[in-house]
Amino acid sequence: MIIVMKSHATAKQIEDVVQWIESVGYKAHPSSGVERTIIGAVGDNRDKAVLKYAESLPGVEKTMPILKPYKLASRESHEGDTVVNVGSIGIGGPEFVVMAGPCAIESEEQLLESAYVVKKGGGQILRGGAFKPRTSPYSFQGMEEEGLKVLDAVSRKTGLPTVTEVVNPVDVDLVESYADMLQIGARNVQNFALLKKVGHARKPVLLKRGMMTTIEELLMSAEYILSSGNPNVILCERGIRTFETSTRNTLDISAVPVLKSLTHLPVVIDPSHAAGNWKYVIPLSRAAVAVGADGIIVEVHPEPEKAVSDGAQSLKPEKFYQLMDDIRVLAKAMRN
What we know:
This protein is of the alpha/beta class. 33% of the residues lie in helices and 18% in strands.
């Protein structure tokens, strides 16, 4: 249920409504817009009729049911678009944000070189995996905490905020102590214990769509994080599994406008994992700008041929610079 406050409602009236919602067994999630505040009341739907009584409280204009199963992620529950801050970088605002770096952290030298490439090209956030969930148990699994230490050291040297994946609920606090944003990968999109755990984290969460996940299922996964108390969620389309074998996955570019119509959360694209081939990363990134995505996350490596993970889809420095030049031109054209 949504409680819509009157445009002139006072801070005291809003706080009284929040306390009343919680007194009847619901969680209150206020959202302040330019003209008014709306308060989402989330809990057991079996007793939702009691929330209609909120209309008698001072400052309340009306109550409205949230029709979507994802209550907090829906546009009904939030006025305007959400901007998620990763360090000093806002995702979901007017700027198209580029997150870039190697798939896996291999050494401080490798990550530092990658970070300088990212920064020189104009990328705003450094990516790098310390924990790597792999299809084969014999593949490189990441440097784990040593990798996180490298990520932190490189971030301090370059000033770039960071994003890295967490795969186990017991590691959330550890990863959060080093990274500026936590990534939930495609294979963990419905790991509900992990979603709840990052929902209690103080850092933003980049939530990737699963290979076989519908848009509604992705939004329900985001709901786990939001309902656990973390409002800073960014959705990522990274390709879905279809019958096509020419690419690693099939980028569902239509997911961007569909998600934009359904949710207030920022939406970004991962063209690297969608394509699985560096040749297609730049064209798909252009499509992300054109379709209205809030940013991209791409893989960049100084020597992709020597990469321990996903070298085939990683951009060399000169290709990354080309990508950034293309993005600047397209982003300017879109603004005009």
